[in-house]
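Homework help thread (please don't just give me the answer)

Our assignment gives two proteins as sequence + structure token strings and asks us to describe the second one. The first is just a warm-up. Here they are:
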Amino acid sequence: MTQEQQLIPIGSDHAGFKLKEFLIESLITKGFSFEDFGTFYEESVDYPDFIHPVAAWINKHPDKKGIVICGSGQGANMTANKYLKVRAALCWNVEQAKLSRLHNDANIITLPGRFIDFEEAVECVKVFFLTPFEGGRHIKRVEKISAIIH
């Protein structure tokens, strides 16, 4: 597998810990490298403490991509999407991962640690990181995502 060599920020809560560890172990052999923002244990933690650092990193490097995980994926996704330059997409199958890149130029994939098969998660991540943004008619839509509403 070929992929752009980059450091991938990854973070999870306790419910995503096992999946996070599995992804790192599985994908390092495919040429991926990670900056692990934790958690490092299965003991209960608050997901924002581990999602904010990943989202802040991507917000500073919006052309890069990251991974966040919590039990349902919802809380991690909501937290990550608080950042202006983050477009986090909750994905639980390969088609969603592909479309989130093609049509939405998502830069963080959010995975539901309690609701996705680990092998499916690996495939989702590979597709997410290897699929380019389609551009074209989607550009103006993506630009509207970060519009500030008062």
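The one we have to describe:
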Amino acid sequence: MTGRPIARALVQAGQHAMLTDSDGRFEFRDSTDNALFVNKPGYFWENAGAMTGWPLAVPDKPRPLELRLVPEAILSGHVTDPSGAPLEGVSVMLRTLTVSNGLKHWEQRGGTTTNAEGEFRIAELQAGEYAIQTALKLDGPPEGDAAAGYAPADYPVLGTNGAGALQVHAGDQLEAEISTRLEKLYPVSVTVKGLSENTFPSFNVRTAGGVEINPALQMDRQTGIFRMLLPSGSFEVRAIGYELPQLVRAGGRGNINRMPQQFMAQQSVTVAEGPVSGLRMTLEPMAAVPVEVALEKTTKPQSTDANPLQFNFSLLSAGADGAMTYPAEGMDPTHPAQGLQTGDPLVIRNLPPGQYVLQGGGQQPWYIASAVCGGTDLTREPFAIAGSAAGCAMRVVLRNDAASLQIQVSNAGSDAGDGRPTTAYVHVVPLNNLTRDEQMLPTGTGKLSLDGVAPGQYLLLATPAGTQLAFRDAESLRRYETEGKRIDLSPGEKTEIRLDVIGGEP
């Protein structure tokens, strides 16, 4: 950001390590390692999270390397009441807008608590989009008619799809002033049915806008009555019960830990300036989806065909409020899900209501050729679960006539003038098929060979930084298409493509 030297950074090359001097310099003699690792609190590597070290080019004439670290950003501020008085002990939660499975999601990224002056400070932030929220804080005892609390407050107030989020750049030092109001809290009583001795419930309460809050909660397991304090408004209350895991004896393999069964109930609640009672929720098992798999061999059998096929399946939530993954497992808990053989019964368990997309991957050259569940084509549309039953079994067909790509990236692999090769990241973005995820692969030589690519339409893009793309967002996809190349791969096809590294981020 500034070009200034960084002193006392720890540099490692294999078994060698040293701290940089006041000019940021270091030197290793007689080192045969081909990668360097650098660390200093308050700084990140370039392309943090995408690189495992700096690969070294071999220059014609020895010259000093130049390694660049990116400074952290810091977000600090105050939380006050409407009169401007500081509030101590308020939980401040940090969220970041990230991309997973081609969609933007808000993810929790830690937080802190205000001190006696109402101050908070969150450091070690990388560049990105952020938002903060204060938690519901009780003011006084949680009993009686005088219960009150400071309502959750958002900073900034967000629009659709994260519009208006804090734009944080490397090295930024931002301040946020948050004011929250004191509200009367009302007792809400819910009777939960379906609790067994081995079931331990937890509650999740969200506002009508989808923001999670954490109210004070009391539980009476004998009666199944749960009591919480909420301000006026509309809420979605979700109870989730977890059964203790059971050990299953597997012949010759010892004990296997069975995945615990999960139960769920949800209820819409409106609090209108008064107590709410008489609500009832019944825990029911979460949905389970059987998975039937068939192999369609379209090419000559290979030597690996005699071994169990390594292929895994999972459902990924397609909602904008999270990115959970639910893997397939064997219906028989003594049989692992990995090493799939034709006809092995699989199941995806513990699925809450929502929208999902099927993902699968494994041993080349096999790929998902088709997938349906009832009348839903899973390659074209998400799979919806409304209650405790999925209502259908997935039927997946795998084929082994995958295509291959040879990719040449312009201006990648050359010496950037600092002793390191110019690295580019190739994005292989699937189009018109929800079962496939983006592939992002670095190339330091400018050449990339990809085998086992499923036939279909793709967008190819080369970027200077390794960042996942929100390719399932229609607006983002239109922007990417102006920078990349579209291809349509046929079964078994071998294609060569040349790409130019785009300037900046798409």
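TA reply:
I won't write it for you, but here's a hint about the kind of observation we're looking for: The chain has four domains: 73-183, 188-284, 286-399, 403-500.
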